Each structure stands twice: as structure tokens, then as C-alpha cells.
Amino acid sequence: MLRNRGLAYAAAFGCGMVTFLVGATPAPVATDPGPIKVAVRRLTETQYRHTVADVLGPQIKIEARFEPEKREEGLLAIGSSQLSLTSAGFEQYFALAGSIAEQALAEGQRDRVVPCKPADATRADDGCARQFVAAYGERLFRRPLTESEIAARVRTAAAGTARLHDFYGGLQLALTSLLVAPEFLFRIETAEPDPAQPGAFRLDGYTMASRLSFLFWDTTPDAALLQAARSGALHTAAGLQEQLERLTSSPRYEQGARAFLADVLQLDGFANLVKDPAIYPKFNQSVADSAREQTLKTSLDLLVRQQRDYRDLFTSNETYINRSLAAVYQVPFVSDKEWAPYTFSDASERAGILTQVSFLSLFAHPGTSSPTRRGIKIHEIFMCEPTPNPPADVDFSKVKDSTQGTVRGRLLDHMQNTGCTACHRRSDPPGLALEHFDGLGQLRTTENNVPIDVSADLNGSKFVGANGLANYLHNDPRVPACLVRNVFAYGVGRKTEERDEDYLAEQTRIFAASGYRVPGLMRQIAATPEFFKASIPRGVSP
Amino acid sequence: MSLRFDRRSLLKGMLGGSAVYLGLPALDVFLDGNGTAFADGAPLPLRFGTYFWGLGLTDTPTGGTRWVPTTTGPGYEVTPELASLAALKDKVSVFSGFRAIGDGKANLVHWSGHASILSGIAPASPNRFDGASFDTRIADAIGTATRFKAIDVDASISRLPVSYSTRTGNTFATPETTPLALYTRLFGPGFQDPNSPDWKPDPSIMLRQSVLSAVTDERQSLMRNVGKADQVKLDQYFTSVREMETQLAVQLQRPGKCEACVVPGAPKDAPRASSVDVVNANTRTMAKLLAMALACNQTRVFNVVHTAGASETYLAGQSKIYHQITHDEPTDARLGYQPETSKLAALVMQALGDFLTELDAVKEGDGTLLDHSLVMAFSDTGYAKIHSIENIPMFLAGRAGGRHKAGQHIVGKGESVTRVSLTAMQLAGAPVGEFGTGTMKTARPISEVMT
Amino acid sequence: MKHAIASSLVAASIALVVPGMAAAGWTRTYVVEWNEPAMYYGAKSGVIDPGTDCPAGTNPEVDWVKVLVAAGYTEEEAKWLRNPANPTRSPVHGQNQMAFRGKDRANVYVNPTSTPDAGLVGVSGTIAEGIDLDGNAHTGLTSPTGEQGIDNKFYETLGCWKTYRGPPRLSSGALQFNDSMRNGAWTTLIVVTGKGSDPLNDKHVAVGFYLSNDKMVKDGNGAIARDYTFRIKPHAKYEAVFAARTVNGAIVSTKPADVMLRDPSYTQDLELLRARVNLQMQPDGSLKGYVGGYRPWEPVYRGWVNARGPVIEVLTWVQLPAVYYALRRNADFSPGGRKGEKTHISYAMRVEALPAFVITPDATAQVAAVMSYKVQAPQEEERRGAGTFRVVDGIVIDPKMTVQAGPNAVILPSTYQK
Questions:
Q1: Is the CB of residue C120 less than 8 Å from the CB of residue C164?
Q2: Nearest CB partner across the interface for B314, out of A185, A366, A538
Q3: What is the pLDDT of residue B269?
Q4: Mean pLDDT across chain A
Q5: Helix, coil or strand: residue A35
Q6: Shortest Cα–Cα distance, A328 to chain C (Å)
Q7: Alpha carbon of B287 to those of B46, B94, B147, B354, C196: distances in Å?
Q8: What is the DSSP-derived secondary structure letter of residue B137?
Q9: Range of A301's domain?
Q10: Mind listing the pLDDT tens digit for each residue in C230-240?
Q11: For a surface tag, which of A114, B62, B269, C260 has the fewest beta carbons within 10 Å of its beta carbon?
């Protein structure tokens, strides 16, 4: 019986015959110990797309279903450090890699893409293949390839060329193999011994380059960053500062800021957002997509382009809308462009991000608003305060059945129940202040012809309506502290812990003193040694 | 130079140009004396699937149950919320009274229940299991010879699709969420009709295999100096690569004919709404596709989520979601249960009835696809109002090739849900002797339903 | 003479509302989500049932064999032509030979009087929807709410014809054309402004109908969504400006106007002479009512003919020449005065509109006045939809057909078997 670990029975039962295949291979030779891997972070969809566009060209069409990301401790960036790839996910990446390689090396493109010409286009040319693999491998793996990594792909190219009698066909296989490699699909962060402190470790230059590039541009390090890594400049204060200036003054910074904001503001799932058409007939996919874009456009404009005070995000009545959104907001769209700036009047009760359709519709039910959900998300997103799960021992049989007719009334009743008070007293009030907006985000000031009461009391702090809530958040010191924490956690890809508290408090102080400007905050944090601290995982000895 | 027989070497052997076909004596785990056979003598494959729906079934602590049959053993009487299973009741066993046991861990609402059923251990944190889900064990045992090891489906039309199938507890499978996506994955590019008379091996497949070998060659050096958590992630990555290799290997072989296989046409996607009527229709459409995928031997294992725990579905036109109703609705003093909740529960169960009906509609051998399958259907809670993880409704449907003595109502009397999971694993042919940890550890399957 | 005076009055009234009318006291703007001829349905249920309007129900399906035989074809030929198994002329464009049933096989579509009047059955009831166009309570029928003098001969003539008959929004013609409009074929806007402070009661109101290139958007239930913004597209033809007043929310014309609107039919131009509006502002913000006037009747006939005579006749159960005769017979207005030829017929269109935002053609502001934009309109000729067929003399000729219809066509093939 052939039963070895990992043995595959290539057998088709039931619907046909049984087959079995035989072969043999020599055992691999032991290689040198490599660098220490301190983190493995899966590439996000936008990072993947931007990288392919930057490395192989923006004309490459990427049509695939990307594996869903996971939100952990409020950020997808933290979740990406915990995710791997399922087989369905790998299937998609495998097919996608083949498609990308084919497009990149298509007849019209190859002269631009391949840095050398083969001696004979129908036969293998290891030299040219090696050049290609080394150049693109470095851009894709975000570090120079090792000899064995290059050799493996050169072998693949040669074998493919032999079968296809086409040098470029072989290169396609090599490129595909680079695009499905874990070193590309995952950001493998590595540490090296720190020459300044014997026995200690520091992140190597390429890992630093990646962190900077993904934080500021949401893409793979460009040639200049790779060079700064190679030369060791990133390990100097001046070299690092130079790159920080370059990265934030580039128009590409908007791309990175957009990815950061989309993560922090939890703007995911719009493609799948569902509302009941009978109750919210104006909702459709175009409205959902537009809502997301509105929030991103508005935030980017306020925080990055105008470099205004972060807290204005809650109180500013200036935004961008398009025709679909205008219908939901019930305002005219006076423009012949697709998007136009719009300033909401005071009477509209709309000021700030919490009154935008994106936030209001995402954190609601298909057919109603949800003060609890909105309240929970306000705490989580803007104050970094997650809400614990409902306790298991709540005796719902003792929960007084509420006879209240309004949403607010029932929630207030629930808050009377001892098992529920502790959390709902905290989570519900901010959501209650937003009750003038229904589950789609449309303004409604009465429920059953009775004006909706939007006063709220959050552990002693009282405010009324969306404006009141906005001012509350504007003035609460936890809000900027939360953003600081998020910038840091997003950049390093892990949740923050008690040991980070002093550092984060100091960064928050600087952030406040500088007028709460976000680009400055990101530069400031990326210049601190804490941002590049290498934590060796337990059990790994060099 | 040591010779190693492993999967890669098999594939390399194929790349070298020679494929050797050997007749292999059938292994015990795949043959059972009670299995029915095709005319040519080859045994019919057993299929296994999980089917999950959210918010349990209506059952109140004061005794008003709408789903637990009053009789035990064979021939149980069909209760109101099980009405949709009436036509198939002889092929469905009902398990009541089983519970998830936390061993001191908090009951994480809408999570601990099914996490315990699937992984055998009460999870410490939400959004994670503390062990692999047992469908992966079954997939490893019976799913290695088909193009897909398992297929995951989420029919709930919700914003964040879910799957509860996991190998690491961290990363869950990516489900197909629309009929068209499911169809494309199963019958789109890469599908080889097993009954096609002019099958030829696709030469490009061998080239794609060579792409993967460059990746797997680097595995050892990659895994050096990696922390434990990261090792787990990379392991899963390489497992996914191996499954891709298997897919390619399977595609290089001439598929055996499958009489029951009829390649369906591409479905149209329905409008997106998560009301229960639309979700049920979606489930039914995807059931048809899944049934044909099983009949065409594209996979042996599947996992279906009808609605996630804390289900967001609702009656069309009504503003309250099912989840909220389970908590808000008072128990009707006269009826003894929550009427709106029960209405929704029955509607949700309709989807399970339809799902099983679709499997039963495919004739296979001298029975139906359902006769050669085992579907374990279960939910996240018992009495949803109080997030109870006692009396979680569980069903085993399908005759499992004759191994399942179906049609019985088994009462658990507070025993662990893992007993049912273990039973499912053994009926499905996974070589598993025990399952679960702590108080939920068990080595005793429910022999009353096993031949 | 009267016409000259009338038109100068009209010109004068238009001058009143042309720019010069500064920002109004109030503005309400709408998009038309449904428009159809106002054809009062007199039955209690169904779409073709007998009712007070048509006691025998909708005009029944025509016996085409009988018609062809009456036109001089043999019974064998007639049956052969009507047999669906013989789509010799075209399965899509119908049996072209049906055109040639006039005297000496003349084409009746372009020569309707070459065949006798078959007598189109019209409405015999006493109720009609529409507007009192001539100010005379003794001419015309009574509205469902009791108003007398409703002038709608178009309805009386064609109201039992299947394509027009039915409850609101349910006649086959209305469904077809409104579906097309709601799917983006065209958009009509209505702007209402007033000088006073109470929109529901204002003596100085202006109403404007305009076209827009912006498409309507359907909501989750298939209805048109409210509150979308539309930009006025200046059009050389389709624009209407009315002087009116509001009384308890009813917008009623104070003077007639000669206008042209986009007709929801094959005859795209809806010229209305002496036109008036009667539109009711609804509590939910929408607008419902009529716009009526005297429309030229021959283009109506020609519109149907140009939609492929054989197809229209068979699908809508009508003999088109009879429509010609009936319209000619019932036309009740001559623009040239009492002695002139009655080229026009009284008509009313039901209009339902939803609140929408309307902005100026240059997209810089919401409209605040009712004015004419015709001077800004480009000179564009009629654009036909892509893929429409070429209709010549009421039929579509497919040159690839082995046998062509015509006055000299041989009907039965030599291999014809009974």
C-alpha cells in the first residue's frame, strides 16, 4: 500500500476508473538560514491592483474576485496580518496571475516590458530570462531575489520555452510564478541584526521601504524607495526624512490616503449593501457606490488637499455629491459634471461625516435605522472603543417586553434592564441623536406624525441631534487619540497594546499642537523609531 | 539521493511525459458493504455537506416548542416548523436536546453554538474558531479526488458574506454568493464534461503545473525563521497551492462517465434583496447547481450558509429583521410561543426542505443523489430570544449510501452537540474516532442512526 | 380673421411670460412620469369589457378574410394570406399584401379613400375626460366630476379602439409608449412659477413644458424616483408656455396657447392649438391633470401607418382606413376659421408628474422663471432610433423576399396545396 504523508490518491471513484501515478524526486538540499520573518501580511485588493499597474502597466485589466478581507480591532490592516489564502482564493489569484502575465507580455507590450532581447525568440535564453526575472522579481517581491528564487523561475521559463517554442511564452510562466508566490501575495516583513545594538534586531531596509510605500501610496515601493533601501539611506534620519517629504508631497499620496480612510472609516461592503426596495425605493447600487465615493472624496479634500483640522470632518457642511445622491438628499444637483461640491444648509441638519448616506446606511438594517448599530460604530471608528458582545447570561425572559411605539422608546426601555444597561447606555445615545435619518440616510423628522426626539445623554454629556453629536465628537480628546492609534496600527499592521500607550499619547499631543493635520501626523509617526520596531516572534532563534 | 514518493513527485513524473495507470485495490474507507453500485460495479461516491441557517427554531423554556417532535425513534411526527421536511422525513433524522458546553467560556452570542458544533470547542473570541471545522476533516478524507475539495456557498445576499469552514480558525473559506458566480466556478472555464465523448488532455495544464512547482520548491527556505502564527498562515497558503495542484492533476485525467450528470445552463442572477423569499429562492437556485456539481463529480463536499447567525433576513416590506423580532416579540400568552418568530422560522426551514428536495431530484444509480449523500443541517442557537445554546436544532439528511438509518428522532438529554458531529464524520467516511475537547469530547457516535 | 386676432392675443400673452418676468414668488418643478391620451374607461373592471363608453366592449378583432374578400380577393387567396404558416411577406412586418385592398388594388394606407369606410365604432357614452376648449358648456361631454363642455372628439372617435381603450395606465398603447419613455427614450419637465405667496391660490402663474436629455431613474419598485435633477434642453419644437392661475391647488390656464409637445405615440409631434392646462397639485407633492387642445388629425393617422400598417391593423384590431374616415368625420376645429377645412380635432392628454429639481440649460442654477428657450435650441432634425425599419407607404419592403406584395402580386404559389 502506498501510504505516505501527503500522498495523493489521484483516483476518481464512482463515476469512473481508478488511476494512480508514479514518479520520484531527489530530496532538497539544506540551504543557509535566511532573515527572520517578523510578520506576514496579506496584500489587499487595492494594493494588489496598484502594484500590478505600477510594475507592469496601468493598461492591464484585472478582473477577478478577491478574497474578502477581515476587520480586526477596527482595521482591515490588522486583519490582513491574520489572514492566509483559502483554496478558492488561490484559485482566483492563480487564474489572475496567468491573465496578467499574458497581457503584460503580449506582442505589443513585450518590447517595452522586457529589458533584453533573446538570441532566438523560439528558444530559451537563460541570460535574458534571468535579467527579466531579477528586475521584475525585485519590484514584485519588494526586495532583491535570492539566487535560488531566480534560478527556479529561469528553469520554469526554460521548460516552458522548450514546450512552446516561444521565449515569451516561457517568460509568461516565470512571471505567473512570481505573481502567485507567497513573497508577492504576502508582505513578508523581515528583521536583520542591528549593527548599532549587538544582539538586537531592526527591520531591514526593504521592509521599511514597504511600510512607507504602503502607508503613503498603497502600493509597492518605487525605484527611488528601493534604492534608498538598498543604499541604507532609510536607516538614517536624513534619508528617511527625505523619503517622507517625497512621499507626502507627491500626488500619489492621495491614493494612499484614500486606502487609509476607507479602512479607518470602515467603508466596506457597499457592493453587497442591501435595502428593502419597498421601504427605501430610492436605494440602488449606484446610490451605494456613490455614497462611498462621497465620503472618500469629502474626507480626502478636507484632510489631504486642504489640510484642515481633522475634527472638521464632523462639523463641516461642505461635501461632494452626484445626481443619484442629490435625489436621496433631496437637493438639486446644479452641475453638468459627474460630481460637484455642495454645501448643505443649516436647516438640512446635515453637517459632517455622520450625516452622510454612507455612514447612515451602512450601519442600519435593510428596512430601518439602527441607533444601536450606529452608536456602536461611532464608538469603534472614532473613539477606538469597541463594544463588548452581549453577555450570554442576560435572562431575556426577564427583559420587560417594551410596548413603546417608537424606535427610541423601545431602546430607552431596554436600557432599563439591568443586563442591558451597561452597554446600551453607552452605545445607544450617539445613535439616538441621529434618528432624524432613516435606514437609507434620508431626512425624516417625524415618526407617525410625532416629531422624533433626538436628544441624547451619553454618561452625563448631553447633546441634541446630529449637530450636537458632531460638536461632542469635535471636542472629545479620545477622537484625535483614536486617529493617532489608527495611523500607527494601520502602518505597522498590528493592534496596539498597553506598552504603546505612552508613545501614542505623545504622538497625540504633537498632533494636537500642530493643528490636527493628517498628512503631518502620518509623516510624524513614520519618522519615529517605534514605527519600525522589530518584534521577534517567540520561538524563533536566528 | 533519497527517493520520496509524494504528490509533487507524482506531478513531476507526469511532467516527464509518462503517466502510469495502475489498478488499485479499493480502500476500505471508500467501500462499504451496504453501498449500492453502478452496473459496472464501481461504488457510488458518498457526498457530505453542511447546511447552516441562523436563529434556530422556536422553542420556549416553558415548554412551547414548535419543532421538537413528541415521539422519539423512527416515524416521528412532523411538527409545524418541520413541515417543509415532511415529504422527505424518511431520509431525515432529527436531533433535539443536544447542547454546546462552554466549560467556563462565555456564550458568545450567535457564535459559540455553531462554533462548538463545527470545531468541537467553545471559542474564546468572536469571529474565530479555536479549531478547524470538521467539514475540512471530511474533505480531506473524501474530497481529494475531485476537482474541488469542497465548495462553499452563502445564499443570504448579505453585505458581508460568511462561511464557517476553516482550517486554522482564523481564515474562513470564501463562499460563492450568487448563482452566476457559483455556476461560473463549477461549470465555467476549467470544467470538463465527464460525459463528453471527445475529451483530450489540455496541454496548458502541465505548463500551469510548472508554475506552481517553482513556488513549492521555495517552501522550505520560506518557512525558516518564521513565528508560529505566521507558520500557520503560510501552511494554509501551501495547502491551497496543493489543492490547486490536485485540481490540475485531476483535469489531466480522463473523467469517468457520470450518468446523472447533466450540464446546466447559466442561471440569471436575481435582484438583490435579503428578504426571506428572495433568500429562499436564491438558496433553491444554488441548490440545483450544487446538486449537479455533485452529480458531475466536481466535488464531494459542500458547505451552505442560508443565513448567517444573527440573521438579517426579514419578511418583504416589513421593517424589522428576523433577529430583532426574536428578541423583541413577546411570547403570546395563549399560544405559548412567539408567533411572528415562528412564522419566520417556518419560512426559513422551507429553504432547507427545498434544498434537500433538489438533491433528491437527481436520479443516481437505483436511488437519488440524496440517498448517496449526508447533509448535516444545524443552526447557531436553540431558543434565539435568550441566545440559548441548549437544544440547538440539528438534522442529518440523506441515506449516506445506506449507512444512515434515517427517519428517526433522537433526543440528546443535554448531551454535547459533538456527538452529532462525530456521527456525521463517521457516516461520511472520515477516519475519526473521537471529536471535541473538554466536556464536549466524545468518542460515542449516535449508533442508533448508524447501520 | 378670427384666427389672426386669436393668434395675436396668443402672441401677446406669450409676451407676458417671456423673460421680463423676474424671479417668481414660488417655483415648483416636476418630471412627467406618465402621459397618455385621456380616454375615459366606462366599464367596472378589465381592460376591454363592455361599459358605458363602449357598450359592446372594445372593438373586436377584425375578420380579415372577410375584409380581403370584400376587397376583391378570392376566398382561397384571402385564407392563404391570413394563414400564419405563410409569412411570405414577413413574419416581423406582417402581411404586406393587406395594403393593397383599395380600388384596383390601391394601397389603402396611403390612399385610405380608395376603399369604402368600414365604420370605426366610437364612444357612445356621455362622459369624457379633458378640457373645455371652446368655452362652450353645450359642446362636448361631461367630465367624471360633472364639469360640462369637455371637448375631446379624439376620445369620442377612437375611444373604443383597443390600442387606446382601458383604465388609466393600462391601455396597450399607453403602456408601450410610456415604457419606452420611462426607459429613457425622452423626458418631459414641467415648471410652474407664481408671483404670489400661496402656491395653491395665485392669480399670476406660468406653466412651462420642456424637454431634457437627462433620463428618469426607476426606483426599487419600478416606479420613477422623485427628486432627481434634470437639466432643460432647449428644443426647437417641443416647448409649451401657458399663462394660468391656481385655485385651491388647481392650475388652470387663463389664456389659450399654441404649443407643441412630445407626443407619446408614433406621431412624435403633438401640435396643440388653443391649448390649455388643468393640473391639480396633489398633497403628496405630485401633479396630475390634463393638457388639451386641438391637434391635427391626419398626422395621427399617418403615425399609425408609418408604424407598419399590417402590424398595427392585426395587433390592435382595426382597419386603418376606417380610422382615417372617422377622424376626418369628427374633426371639430379649423385653424383657418369657420369656413376652413377642419384639420384639427379636440384632444386631451392625461399627465402625471413627480417632484423633481430642474436646472437651467447651462447647469448653473435652478430655474426660477418660466421662459422660452427656443432661441437657444440647435437646429436638429428628427433622429430615428437605431435599428428602426424603413417604412414606405405603410409597409416594410424586404428586397430579399422572393415574392413581393403589390397591386399585381400573384397571391397563391403554383405549388399551393389545400
A1: no
A2: A366
A3: 81
A4: 90
A5: coil
A6: 8
A7: 17, 21, 19, 8, 64
A8: H
A9: 259-475
A10: 999 999 999 99
A11: B62
Do residues B29 and B401 touch, judged by C-beta distance below 8 A? no
Is there a single domain that holds both residue A264 and residue A186? no
Strand partners, C271: C260
- List chains adjacent to chain A, taking adjacency as at least 3 C-beta pairs closer than 8 Å: B, C
Q: Is A12 on the interface with B (CB under 8 A)?
A: yes
Does A145 fall in a domain?
yes
- Partners of residue C257 on adjacent β-strands: C275
Burial zone of C319 (CB within 10 Å; 0-12 exposed, 13-18 middle, 19+ buried): buried
| Cβ–Cβ below 8 Å for B246 and A8 | yes
**Cα A34 from Cα A486, distance rounded (Å):** 32
Beta-ladder partners of C350: C36, C290
CA-to-CA distance for C324 and C111, rounded, in angstroms?
A: 10
pLDDT bin (cut points 50, 70, 90) of residue B387 is: confident
User: Does residue A195 surpass a pLDDT of 50?
Assistant: yes
Nearest to A75 by CA among A271, A262, A253: A262
Choose the mutation target among A3, A4, A7, A15 for the interface with B, i.e. most B CBs under 10 Å: A15
- Cβ distance C223 to A327 less than 8 Å, yes or no, reads no
Looking at A197, A212, A228, the residue that finishes a domain is A197
| B230/A40 touch (CB, cutoff 8 Å), yes or no | yes
Residue in chain B closest to A89 (alpha carbons) equals B174
**Structural domain contains residue A229:** no
pLDDT computed for residue A17 by the predictor: 43
- Mutate which of A2, A43, A87, A145 to test chain B, going by most B C-beta atoms within 10 A? A87
Question: Cα(A536)–Cα(A245) distance, rounded to whole angstroms?
Answer: 30
Interface probe, candidates C31, C226, C229, chain A, greatest A C-beta count within 10 A: C229
Q: Give residues 204 to 223 of C whose Cβ lies within 8 Å of A.
A: 214, 217, 219-221, 223
Model ipTM value: 0.87
Count helices and strands in chain C by DSSP H and E runs: 8, 11
The pLDDT tens digits of the residues spanning B256-289 come to 888 889 999 999 887 788 999 999 999 999 999 9
Q: What is the pTM of this model?
A: 0.84
Hey, are the CB atoms on A20 and B24 less than 8 Å from each other? yes
A324:C217 CB<8 A: yes
Split into its structural domains, chain A has a count of: 3
Exposure string for C147-171, b = 16+ CB within 10 A, e = fewer: bebbbbbbbbbbbbbbbbbbebeeb
Q: Does residue A539 sit within a domain? A: no
Quickly count helices (H) and strands (E) in chain A.
23, 10
Mean pLDDT calculated for residue range C247-275: 96
Do A263 and A148 fall within a single domain?
no
Give the closest residue to B295 by CA, choosing from B329, B323, B257, B351: B257
Cα separation, A229 vs A242, in Å, equals 12
Task: Measure in Å the smallest separation between the Cα of B199 and chain A Cα atoms.
Answer: 14
Q: How many CB pairs under 8 A join A and B?
A: 340
Nearest CA in chain A to B251: A10
Same domain as A287, residue A144? no
Distance, CA of A54 to chain centre? 18
Average pLDDT over residues B177-199: 91
What does the longest C-alpha to C-alpha distance in chain A come to? 84
Residue A120 lies in a domain: yes
**Do A16 and A88 have their domain in common?**
yes
C229 touches chain A (CB under 8 A): yes
**Using 50, 70 and 90 to split pLDDT, how confident is the model at B24?**
very low
Q: Are residues A141 and A273 in the same domain?
A: no
Please indicate, yes or no, whether residues A421 and A506 belong to a single structural domain of this protein: no
Q: CA C318, CA C330: separation in Å to the nearest integer?
A: 17
**Band of the pLDDT at C417, cuts 50, 70, 90?**
very low
- pLDDT digit string (tens) for A271-320? 889 899 889 999 999 999 999 999 999 999 999 999 999 999 999 999 99
